[in-house]
Amino acid sequence: MLVLASASPRRKELLSLLVKEFLVLPADIDETPYENEGAKDYVIRMAVEKAKAATLIYQGQGHQDVSAVFMASDTSVVVDGHILGKPSSLDESKSMLRQLSGRSHQVLTSLCVCNQAYDHIATQCVISEVHFRSLSDVEITQYWKTGEPQDKAGSYAIQGVGSVFVESLVGSYSAVVGLPMFESAQLLAQFGIHPLEEKSYE
């Protein structure tokens, strides 16, 4: 059994392209960065903590499958070394998108795959570079009113309306959406889960 430690519909949709069946167990953790914590260390720590939190939920629900594998991911938008979280207001969204306007930023997406005993933990961090065209305050306000930016790191979704801001992307599109497909397949294979076998029903 594969368990996805995420409430994100985007990650669920992407993982379903690799694996036929999996259990979704969202893990609620403290996502506050440590003081002076680097962005890469932060996103990897978030994925590991989400995966471990999901194992505790799984065990608490009385599941008996000791061979269960847990998968978690975290995505952060980083500009000038600063991590941009999810905006809670139009003002926060404006602040974030103004920082991204007319320039490049990094999107860091981490992966953690582990077993219940934690004696096999595999992690990876995928870094992509996204370049935005210049944005006007009117566009930012109009975008906020779509409802799309409100639960997105960096206040935009590359797979949605926010794609109109993206001039270029160097890296992994699926990682920017929330789950790097190539790296996910590589890590899952380490745990005996092979997407091509899964999807061909062999």
TrEMBL record:
Q: Which cofactor does it need?
A: a divalent metal cation
> What PANTHER family does this protein's entry cite?
BIFUNCTIONAL DTTP/UTP PYROPHOSPHATASE/METHYLTRANSFERASE PROTEIN-RELATED (PTHR43213), BIFUNCTIONAL DTTP_UTP PYROPHOSPHATASE_METHYLTRANSFERASE PROTEIN-RELATED (PTHR43213:SF5)
For this protein, what reaction is catalysed? Answer: UTP + H2O = UMP + diphosphate + H(+); dTTP + H2O = dTMP + diphosphate + H(+)
| Record keyword Cytoplasm present | yes
User: Residues at site: Important for substrate specificity?
Assistant: 10, 75, 159
What does the sequence similarity comment in the record state about its family? Belongs to the Maf family. YhdE subfamily.
Q: Name one GO cellular component term.
A: cytoplasm
- Subcellular location(s) per record: Cytoplasm
Give the first-level EC class, as a single word.
hydrolase
> Active site annotated at which positions?
74 (proton acceptor)
- What is this enzyme's EC? 3.6.1.9
List the GO molecular function terms: nucleoside triphosphate diphosphatase activity
Cite the Pfam families for this sequence: Maf
Mind listing the GO biological process terms from this record?
A: nucleotide metabolic process
UniProt keyword list: Cytoplasm, Hydrolase, Nucleotide metabolism
Signal sequence annotation? none
From the Swiss-Prot or TrEMBL record, give the protein name: dTTP/UTP pyrophosphatase
State its role: Nucleoside triphosphate pyrophosphatase that hydrolyzes dTTP and UTP. May have a dual role in cell division arrest and in preventing the incorporation of modified nucleotides into cellular nucleic acids.
Please report the organism this UniProt entry assigns to the protein: Marinomonas profundi
HAMAP family, per the entry: Maf
